[in-house]
Specification:
With 92 residues, the protein is an alpha+beta fold. It is built from two helices and three strands; from the N terminus they run E-H-E-E-H. It has a single domain, classed as Alpha-D-phosphohexomutase, C-terminal domain (TATA-Binding Protein). The protein is elongated. The mean pLDDT is 83.
């Protein structure tokens, strides 16, 4: 049986916002969602100037856990939530 190496991915995503107020609202709205993360996935999030910095770390220790779908689904969900938040708080 083929043995797969451990998989470690560090991803940094910077979300640009209109201003610091928007970045703080988005950050505050995302915080409650950052619970019950998979053990192999870490998320650190902070506001920087008029933006948000997301730092994700995905680590696996065996081939049964080598499912990058967990990382991709998490990023997709975070981006979807940010889009919803921006639509709710936008000024028409």
């Amino acid at each position: 049986m083929k043995k797969f190496p451990n998989l470690n991915i560090d991803a940094t995503i910077k979300i640009k916002c209109q201003d610091q107020k928007e970045s703080k609202v988005i950050y505050g709205s995302l915080l409650p969602d950052n619970i019950d993360f998979p053990k192999k996935l870490e998320l650190n999030m902070k506001t920087i100037e008029s933006g948000i910095l997301l730092q994700l770390k995905f680590t696996t220790s065996n081939e049964k856990e080598n499912n990058m779908g967990t990382l991709l689904n998490t990023v997709d969900e975070i981006m979807e939530h940010i889009g919803i938040i921006k639509n709710v708080i936008k000024d028409d």
